[in-house]
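Q: How would the structure tokens look for this protein?
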Amino acid sequence: QVQPVESGGDLVQPGGSLRLSCTASGFAFSRSVMSWYRQAPGKERELVADITNTGGSTNYADSVKGRFTISRDNSKNTVSLQMNSLKPEDTAVYFCHARTWLGQRYWGQGTQVTVSS
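A: Here is the predicted structure in token form.
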């Protein structure tokens, strides 16, 4: 089964930084739109950021714009999320998601990010 694998989740203090990484294989990674989603307790899963197959275009949720940066390295089949100026509201399980140009969708298992003093 194809499943992206996330890493980098941790406990961090407000105002701190964290970098999440996702590695995937078994599909056309370089032809897929990659995204980061998150889900906080009791809340719906929401899109945090996504990036096109070539990395030429990015999109961010208003709540993270200016603080988070999504990037990808197609040679390594990885997508990253650099998170700066973290807030307690950023606490959630973060999921890596791939959408191929044919419409296939793959979800990672998630990695926990906790922002707390």
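The two ends are 38 Å apart (CA to CA).

The chain has no helices and eleven strands.

Upvote if useful.
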